[in-house]
Amino acid sequence: MAYSQPAPAAAASRLSAKAATFTESVIREMTRLAIAHGAVNLAQGFPDFSCPAELKDAAKAAIDADDNQYAITWGAPAFRASIAAKVARAYPGWDVDPDTQICVTCGATEAMIATMLGLVDPGDEVILFEPFYENYGPDAVLSGAVPRLVRLRAPDWTFDEAELRAAFSDRTRAIVVNTPHNPTGKMFSRAELDVIAELCQRHDVLVITDEIYEHIHYLGPGGHIPPATVPGLADRTVTVNALSKTYAVTGWRVGWTIAPAALTAGIRKVHDFLTVGAAAPLQAAGVAAMGLPASYYTDLAAAYQARRDLLCDALTEAGFGVSQPSGAYYVMCDTSAVDPDGDDVAFARRLVSEIGVAAVPGSSFFADPADGRHIIRFAFPKREETLREAASRLRRVRAGR
Ligand SMILES: Cc1ncc(COP(=O)(O)O)c(C=O)c1O
After folding, report:
1. Residue of 65, 93, 142, 248 with fewest CB within 10 Å of its CB?
2. Which one of 292, 313, 336 terminates a domain?
3. 185 CB within 6 A, ligand 1
4. What is the C-alpha separation between 367 and 185, in angstroms, rounded?
5. Which atom of ligand 1 is nearest to the CA of 133?
6. Ligand 1 center to 211 CA (angstroms)
7. Would you call the peptide bond into 147 cis, given omega within 30 degrees of 0 as the criterion?
8. CB of 335 closer than 6 A to ligand 1?
9. Residue whose C-alpha is closest to residue 296's, from 86, 153, 46
10. Ligand 1 atom closest to Cα of 44?
11. How many C-beta neighbours within 10 Å does residue 150 have?
12. Considering its fold, how many domains does the chain have in total?
């Protein structure tokens, strides 16, 4: 008989074609190495300080009140209403209907993949700015989209308008914007968003914008411009956000999308079958988060600015070429002076095992690893004492050269 079964062992260990195309997250791998070596973990972007007491109290009260069963799949009504109210306070004129335009998800991560799966077809092109947050590549693969990369260039991490124009075609379905931007700290300007708006209208393209660092920036009031508020983009923008970074609860896994009703309907359907919903008592605590006063956000930005300055000074002193971020909580560094070999992965491993500081090799943020070989990224959502400990360890980098 010509027909033969594949050997059971080989079949059992085979990955799907999609899963086989991407590797394990390097960021999570560096976190594991940091634990193994007792290193200060400036790799993964999670705070090592407490979340606001209001959130903890509200979560505990919700559990005690037996708010422990499934919430409505696209989000508890009170939480959706509080998100809409907070958006209206932060960005007057941006009106969100909590009944039809919000889908609560398990973090920004699920918000992004539910959006891609709900709105993008296999073969559609999706424009990504490079360097990019490492999830966007696998998100594109999982949804069958074809990524089109447009480079953000140092020192101000802007894009070349002609290059962006050339990336748009009748195959383009969406462009992913991330502002404030991980890993560069770039904030998209009004002029840049106007160019994106013109191109998206001309080619009938969606904007999927990840604004998880919306309140963590150093430009002062009005510095962050949500693409959904840019003329021409309101009816074609999906805004992705989460409690994770703003309220120091990355482990809670509560996020959301804001989008026109027709787009939200697609996201909600996918979300329902992916996860059913985010944790009900933590959505109740999300209401408390959305109710925090404006001063919470000013204090947050000021605290992050002090952390940024401390780490940037230490890195400069250690011999790194520092690119000072305007937003988010990462510093991209040029390692040419401290790692003449230009092997970012080997350098990051040495940094963990010999210096005791974990960071992320630059190749994680580029499609071609060679483009990141002189780059390393440090995260600074940490207590002052943690950053001071990292700073004192980093002094040995310069000494060791
Ligand atoms: C740009 C960006 N989007 C999304 C996420 C993940 O968000 P969440 O933890 O809410 O899934 C991160 C985390 O580092 C991020 O940097």
Report:
1. 93
2. 292
3. no
4. 19
5. 1
6. 9
7. no
8. no
9. 86
10. 14
11. 17
12. 2
Tell me the best of 106, 109, 110, 224 to mutate to test the pocket of ligand 1, counting ligand atoms within 8 Å of each CB and taking the most.
109
Which of 268, 226, 254 shows the shortest CA–CA distance to 95?
Answer: 226
Distance 8 CA to ligand 1 centre (A): 38
Q: How far is it, in rounded angstroms, from Cα 115 to Cα 266?
A: 8
Distance 226 CA to ligand 1 centre (A): 17
Whether residue 168 is contained in a domain is answered as yes
| 225 located within any domain | yes
209 lines ligand 1 (CB under 6 A): no
C-alpha 26/C-alpha 344 separation (Å) is: 12
Confirm whether 215 is domain-assigned. yes
- Strands 357-358 vs 40-41: parallel, antiparallel or unpaired: parallel
| CA-proximal residue: ligand 1, atom 13 (nearest) | 45
Q: Are residues 326 and 266 in the same domain?
A: no
Look at residue 27 and tell me if it is in a domain: yes
Residues 129, 158: Cα–Cα separation, whole Å: 10
Could you give the CA distance from residue 383 to residue 380 in angstroms, rounded to a whole number?
8
236 and 120, same domain (yes or no): yes
Centre of ligand 1 to C-alpha 126, Å, is 19
**Most ligand 1 atoms within 8 A of CB, residue of 46, 208, 244 to mutate:** 244
Altogether, the residues listed in the chain come to a count of 401
Domain termination residue (choose one: 292, 323, 347): 292
pLDDT tens, per residue, the chain with 401 residues: 344 455 556 778 899 988 888 877 788 888 889 999 999 999 988 999 999 999 999 999 999 999 999 999 999 999 999 999 999 999 999 999 999 999 999 999 999 999 999 999 999 999 999 999 989 999 999 999 999 999 999 989 999 999 999 999 999 999 999 999 999 999 999 999 999 999 999 999 999 999 999 999 999 999 999 999 999 999 999 999 999 999 999 999 999 999 999 999 999 999 999 999 999 999 999 999 999 999 999 999 999 999 999 999 999 999 999 999 999 999 999 999 999 888 999 999 999 999 999 999 999 999 999 999 999 999 999 999 999 999 999 999 975 55
The residue range of the domain holding 106 is: 53-292
CATH of the domain at 342: 3.90.1150.10
Helix runs in 40-189, H state only: 53-64, 77-90, 107-119, 136-142, 161-167
